Amino acid sequence: MVSNPLPAIARVVAQQRWVMRGAGVVLPAEKFLRRVTGGRYGVLDLSGLPSIQVTVRGRKTGLPRSTSLLYVPDGADFLLIGSNWGKQAHPAWSANLRAATEATARVGSAEFPVSVTEVTGVERKAAWDQAVEFWPGYEMEHELAGGREFRIFRLSRLG
What we know:
There is one protein chain. The chain is of the alpha+beta class and about 160 residues long. It is built from 6 helices and 7 strands. It has a 7-stranded antiparallel β-sheet with strand order 2-1-5-6-7-4-3, sandwiched between helices. A hairpin with a 2-residue loop joins β3 (about 70-75) and β4. The termini are far apart. The mean pLDDT is about 85. Pfam families: F420H2_quin_red (PF04075). This is Nitroreductase family deazaflavin-dependent oxidoreductase. InterPro entries: F420H2_quin_Rdtase, Split_barrel_FMN-bd.
């Protein structure tokens, strides 16, 4: 059986600083792919990387807000890292998740409710180490963000 070489290539490419300027291309491509596949696939999926689409109510509007993210597998749970492509500001989705206790997640064609927990304190260091081991580019993004402490969330399936 031949394994997919794309995840290994993506991990190497993602550690290049110029990639962080690619959000302007990747994000529209992600929206397009999600639209034409009925939400099932995005750019990360095509790269062979774990992708999750999270829908949570906006903290100000109450309207559902969806975003597609790389996730770090954590047993049956999903870790999300608010790196925001190495920008100085936290991503908007992280503020909405911070205000929520539940959300809806979609991985491939499976859609399910999840609980949302921000990872803090002693547990945060272990989660960060796990995330960097899985996706080494987070270290570079942390540096680019001026050392901003990225928000980390754990999503756990409900039911």
